[in-house]
Fold:
Amino acid sequence: MPTKAMPFHQQKQKQVSQGYQSTKHVHQIQSRTSSSKSVKKEQVETTQAMAQPAYKLPAFRERQPEGMQEYQRMASHFGRDLTTLQHELHRMKVATQEQVENIEITREVRERMSVQRRDAPTEIPKGPDFLVGLRSHTVWEKTPVKLLCTVSGYPTPIVKWYKNDAVIDPLSVPGKYKIENKYGVHGLIISRCSVADSGVYSAVAINSQGKVVSRATVCVRRATGPGEISHLPGQVPLLSGIRRSKLEVFLLDSFGVTFGTEGESLTLVANMVVVPDLPNLPPEVMWYRDDTLLKPSRWVEMSVGGGTAKLSLPHLNKDDEGLYTLRIWTKDGTTEHSAYLFVKDAAPTVKGAPGAPMDVTVSDANKDYILVSWKPPNLTSESPITGYFVDRRKSGTSDWVQCNPTPVKVCKFPVQGLTEGASYHFRVRAVNSAGISLPSRMSTGVTAADEESDVQDIFIVTTVIKIEGKYDIVVQKEELQGVCVTLTGPPTDVHASEINQTYIVLSWNPPSPRGQAALWYLIEKSLGDSNFWQRLDTGVQVRSPRCPIFDLEDKKAYRFRVISVNKHGPSEPSEPTALLQKADPYGVPSAPGQVLASRNTKTSAFVHWEPPKNPNNLMGYYVDCSVVGSKIWTPCNHRPYKHTRFVVHGLTPGDTYIFRVQAVNAYGLGEESLESAPLFIDAALTAPSAPYGISLLSCDGSSMTVAWKRPKRTGGSRITSYYLDKREVESVNWKEVSSSPATKRVFKVENLTAGLFYEFKVQAANLAGVGLPSEPSRPFACEAWTMPQPGPAYDLSFWEVRDDSLLLQWKAPVYSGASPVTGYIVEMAQKGSPDFVVVNTEAVNRCYLKVTGLETGTSYVFKVYAVNVSGKGKASDVSEAVCAKTLPGTKEIVSGVDEQTGDIFLSFEAPEVSALSEFIWSKSYKDITDSNRVAVSTVGRCSRLTLLKPEKEDLGIYSVAVTEAGGASASHTLTEEELKKMLELSYNIRNPIVPLKTELNYEILEKGHVRFWVQAQKISSAVSYRFIVNDKEVTGAEGHKISHDVSTGIIQMTVEHFTRANEGTYTLQIHDGKAKSQSSLVLIGDVFKVALKEAEFQRKEHIRKQGPHFSEYLTFHVDDDCTVMLVCKLANVKKDTTFHWFKEDEEIILDVSPNPMSGSCALPIPLFSRKDQGIYKAVLGDDRGKDTSVYDISGQVFEEIINAIARIAGSSASDLMMQCTPEGIRLQCYMKYYTEEMKTSWFHKESKIASSEKMRIGGTSEMAWMQICEPTDREKGHYSIEIHDGKNAHTRTFDLSGQAYTEAYAEFQRLKAAAFAEKNRGRVVGGLPDVVTIMEYKTLSLTCTVWGDPKPEVTWFKNEQEVVSDDHNQISFESGKFASLTIKCVTVDDSGKYSINVRNKYGGEFVEITVSVYKQGEEIPEPKLGQTSRTSAAPKPAAPPSKPQTPTPSMKSPTPTPPQSVKSPTPTPKSPTPPRSTKSPTPPRFMRSPTPTKK
Structure:
């Protein structure tokens, strides 16, 4: 009801007042009363204002009478707009007045509040409290919900909102949440709710004095649409009213009965014509499944437009099975089309597992549990279902969790342990002895929460007070209770709402009073009538007034009582229930009554049955069918059908079926009904259709011979007679031609008047009655035929219609003319074309013709001319059009031989037959009359023609035609070669032999035994046989073992001592009943020698294996680090067994001795190369014997090992790297192992490089390199290395051109100059000792050889002070090579550290010598050894000498540090130059690589 706008301050006052407790109701009543009075006053003012004239015309504007007509017309046109404008002006006037009043009231309120603030004392701090708490809501999907609460406290509390204990952030989902706070009323608005929004929402109020929480549950439900009651089984609901449409809709091709499989996708399409066809205005279309209106969802998609209406099922499930109806609104009402959709089970993951359950639904959803129910699947050949597993999945997740640890037997289960407020989906799996079924389709989402409505329920509302019929004051029980009620009362009416063999569901009424605190329940049980009460462990806190009870013992009765509990304590127990016991109150339904089946169509049957006497909450029925004689039952429907009559589709025409029915309820499938009577599948009996094609065959002036074609539909019964009527053309009355009906389709009409024209019509009759008459024939003149040519052929028919050929048959003309008919000419034309062409240029003398060369899918018509000596006669009537296309399911005649009797036969299987169908066999298209040569037998859709005495006379064309089967026919030409083969096979069957899979063969067994054996395809337990060797029968005596195995068909003889005496011919003769067989084997000459050699070898092998031996001889494999391993496997070893390795008869001693007990031994050969070639031998032995394995590593074996190494090394090879040296530029490739024996090739610009003085090729164990000596511009370009492993080539490349070559060449020049300087610098070549000890007063001579180019300068030092040549210290330097320092008459003062500095312009060397002088008579001091060669630069004045450096070892080849990915088995190479001091005039070389590595 619309209401008037209220002043803003009154709105605020109303909102706040509605949130108070019942103690504030007096203020609410006063507020509402005052507001209602003000509203009344405003309404009266509005009414008075509307009643006053809005406008009055002045006198000078009044119209004259002649102008009033035009004025009235305009006033009527604009009158409505003027009235609306007046209302709007008045509304604006009232609203403006209200705003002015609001401003005045607001100003007055502020003034008074400011005075109160000055006078009011300081507020006392107070913890937060909810004056009005949150209320739970249940809403529909896509609707908003608003949660409100009122909070008090000082300081003002801060309110935060939570969903399922997670903070709500409005910015995380823009537009989803809106948080409000107006005058202490806090609100959370959730827009367009979805199922995922279901949950527990909390408002948390916090200030410095504490925290309080208010919770409420929001349950979002999805609308499923109200179910409609179907008035007739399988029909859609009747329309309550007719909605007219301006469109005319005509259905054209529509979907028919459809079959699908679970998991597939399927679309039902209906084509229609819409008048007018407006693209933007399609007709209104509704789809129904059974009696339920379908809506678009995840499982159903709908579309209409472009002249089609489509219903798509993207993922078929048995839930989708049912009668689908399309209803379209039209101008005259509705037009409808219906067809059934069958959905069969998907293939199970385990053979024999049941099908999936269906129709999973959820109900009784609350905080504590959700009840899941479903329908059981149909079972035919599967073992019975033992139970079901229920799975759950939280919305938004993909993980399924099994709810019940053991299968539940009834088709419903209460799922517990759910999170309150969370949304769940459920599915069900069936279990039997074979395994577990596929899961059912998951249920719709449901929230684990109590269903609460925005409207108060009966337990909450106490009274409603009406105020003047407009306003309601709702007083609730909890408001009346206030804060006085603490302890809750006991629950009432505790009873069992559901009982079955698995669990009992207890229900009760909540206590009254219940108090303000949160409430939960405790359940106690007592066995029998005892008063010993035991509390149940429900696993979760029970908060809803119902709970399922599990884990009760069978066949024992219990009493139950319930206690309500809140934070203040428990209540008194409720009244106990009566004795309750687990039991199935209903059980499965009884078997349905009598089942009746009748014909419906060629592929369906109508089945009707009586309902069971004990339905026991029936869900529906399952119908099964079986072909008579097969004993295999097939389900007809896969979803329970509710009614007692059902149309079974998909049956094979011509087969005979029986039917049975099972009733279904929540406890499973009941017993099967009795089987129906056998039913032959064919169309229901009706009267035949009208004959057609009446033609005149002959006329003698007083009689006419007419013929006609049989009706296209016989009505399911044989046509017994035809009724022929005639009339003269001028007459309108028809007369019977004869009092007795005709039995053939050719009839001679007597007693006609010559010269008149006559018309004829025919009616056909069968058991169902007389059919409709044919169309009248064209007028025939009763004139005698005297022409010499023959009359027309008639009764043209088509058989053996294929994609490019057909067989045309006809009957000879009744009127042959002046001479006998000699042949026939056939003409044909495409349908609709007047141009006929001759098929056969020469007349055929038979009444059939095979027409070939037709176009597939093209329709043709034919006519036939009879020919005699006088010429070509009258043409037959043009035949019906026939389409050159093979009928679906068409099969050809198959020739064969009966495996049991040996009879030669021709067999044909028709795609479909009816009860009236006959198989007509013919030879050369003439009926077979000689029954002594053939026999025909027919069973169902198969017919067999057996040749009783097959001879050459039986050769020719055999054909078969099936009547009443849509033209099913075929032909087969029996040739002489085919007959010969079948005669041979027939002889073998009638004179049987034991068929052998293999002929007599032999094999050598261990110990040197020889086994002779034959395998037959099949032998019986009564088989007898004998082995003959060299024309002498062998028995199972010593040295021979003879046996057979019926299951495998093997007959064998084992010779234990095979020697030269066993050479000869071996024969096995077999007799098994009437069958016999023989097989021979010749072991003579070279064949015998091979067998004997093998037997002796196996005998020796057996002896060898008695002691320790090699189960696998020596072989090799290469590890990942390119180590070659020689491995062998051992057998029959013990602790005393020894193992030794040898190479070239020299024992190899390993660091770790081989352990034979491990079962295998290995010899590692690291860094394999050509030097490792040779003969390796492994020797194994103990006191039982010795065994040896020899392995020759040479030739092909050596190449294979090298290729295996190259395969691993090539895969590990790094990219080519560049390294500059004083000699040139070096390209190098690191790998796990490199040896010169590997097939490695270097290329420059696709030209292979050979090693030379210019291009040097080499490598180390960790890399391959190629040195370019003294590079020039000719050596620029692309370089690559290829490592071949016998199969593949591993290639690495480097582009030495451009900037890379320029930098490399500059570095090479620098290194070359540095090497030259290093070579020519000054140095001490040798001669100086490290330490010298000498007695006092002797002469000391320090002499050394120096070298340098140019000649170096030599300076001597003592204790870092230069020594000057004098009488005591004499210095000499001879020939630029020999430098000496002679100290005469040494004293203790001469002790110290002496050094020599040899240098030239390229650098120098500083060598130190320690001199120790001791006095005569003293012990010779122990010399302190120094270093033989320490390098340093010439000392600077007053500077201490540098610390001597350790010299670096010399280098073989310059290589950079390999990358970390390459594990090198050798040390990293150092710099190629000799060591130099850190204070050398030239920069040190050993501190860094002379050039960075480049790739």
In short: The CA atoms of residues 354 and 437 lie 5 Å apart.
